[in-house]
């Protein structure tokens, strides 16, 4: 993770402060100890390939990283909890499983009330059902919303 942060720090990969996948491999080869013979190209998708299928997936990913960075859990605790969630449900470790895992960790540590989480999930489902297609889902759209 430290390498990731240092390589992707603004300005570390050239002007503009943005990591460019086609240049990342070149910059990694410049690191001390990098063997140019065994360090092959870094696989990247087409420029148009999204990293996340939906914006909420990026938000779930960012939430997990932020909670880890604040010390809520270690990466090994996260992996154990995510693995337990996927075994419990029998589904893949997709971002829905990530959310369920975060909710479980928050509840287990007394940070979030499981009933409050269930209420929020139900409110979001009602808001989604009441939102016209193509519009953003807002909790204010929940017919039971108390604003």
TrEMBL record:
Nitrile hydratase beta subunit-like N-terminal domain ranges (all copies): 39-127
Pfam family, one: NHase_beta_N
Disordered: annotated segments: 1-22
Descriptive protein name: Nitrile hydratase accessory protein
Source organism per UniProt: Methylobacterium soli
């Amino acid at each position: 993770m430290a390498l990731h942060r240092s390589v992707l720090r603004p300005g570390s990969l050239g002007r503009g402060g943005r990591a460019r996948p086609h240049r990342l491999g070149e910059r990694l080869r410049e690191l001390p100890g990098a063997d140019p013979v065994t360090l092959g190209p870094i696989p990247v998708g087409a420029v148009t390939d999204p990293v996340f299928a939906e914006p909420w997936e990026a938000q779930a990913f960012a939430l997990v990283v932020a909670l880890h960075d604040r010390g809520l859990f270690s990466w090994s605790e996260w992996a154990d909890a995510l693995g337990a969630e996927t075994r419990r449900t029998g589904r893949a470790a997709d971002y829905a499983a990530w959310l369920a895992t975060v909710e479980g960790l928050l509840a287990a540590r007394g940070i979030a009330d499981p009933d409050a989480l269930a209420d929020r999930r139900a409110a979001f489902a009602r808001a989604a059902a009441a939102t016209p297609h193509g519009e953003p889902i807002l909790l204010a759209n929940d017919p039971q919303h108390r604003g």
